[in-house]
Design a protein that fits this description.
By secondary structure, the protein is of the alpha/beta class. The protein has a single domain, classed as Class I glutamine amidotransferase (GATase) domain (Rossmann fold), CATH 3.40.50. The chain has 5 helices and 12 strands. The two termini are 20 Å apart. It binds glutamine. The site of glutamine has 11 residues, from α4.
Length: 198
């Protein structure tokens, strides 16, 4: 895909202490943004947006706290930092986490309740072609890996795609959340949409 020149110089942090970091970074770079690994509070300086990847949300929550990134990132998000959370990253951005660990923290910037591992054991992982509201070019190939689902959607949250009537792609203001792994399919359209809406 051709680079989008308007994105040159846009710095997008990718939380990189745990999870599926590399493919997100590659997608962002391919679109002309600069992916910056975020491991310390200092890494947040100068980023224009952040990606919270898939992984294990309980572990990521712990690492966000122990690394000292949680509080300054929460402040940036409260100030309107655009964010894209995928799978575990979606859980971390949600207002309420169901079936989480009691000490699990989330940023609460999207007014949804998400249930962890909601698609059940037999279908822990699956791939499906997703119809995404307003996305040109046809269905999006979505890879779900022990995915969460949105069980409650608050006012101000836009549902962009659903599986079996359950929302799996939502947006509230500058924050996009996906229950699946858009970085794994080689289709850059959701990263692109996130970046152009910055
Ligand atoms: N099940 C994981 C969790 O609860 C998320 C899985 C993923 O990110 N692929 O954090």
């Amino acid at each position: 895909m051709a680079k989008a020149p308007c994105l040159n110089g846009v710095k997008v942090g990718v939380f990189a202490l745990q999870g599926a970091v590399q493919r997100h970074a590659e997608a962002l770079d391919a679109l002309g943004a600069e992916a910056v690994a975020v491991r310390t509070p200092e890494d947040l300086a100068g980023i224009d947006a952040i990606v919270l990847p898939g992984g294990e949300s309980t572990t990521m929550s712990q690492l966000l706290v122990t690394s000292g990134v949680f509080e300054p990132l929460a402040a940036r998000l409260a100030d309107g930092l655009p964010a894209f959370g995928t799978c575990a990253g979606m859980i971390l951005l949600a207002r309420e986490v169901l079936d989480g660990r009691p000490d699990q923290r989330s940023f609460g910037v999207v007014d949804v309740s998400v249930r962890r591992n909601a698609f059940g054991r037999q279908v822990d992982s699956f791939e499906t072609d997703l119809a995404v509201d307003g996305l040109a070019g046809g269905d999006f190939p979505a890879v779900f890996i022990r995915a969460p689902v949105v069980e409650r959607v608050g006012r101000g949250v836009e549902v962009l795609a659903a599986v079996r009537d359950r929302p799996v792609l939502c947006r509230q203001g500058p924050v996009l959340i996906a229950a699946f792994h858009p970085e794994l399919s080689g289709d850059l359209r959701l990263h692109q949409r996130f970046l152009v809406e910055l």
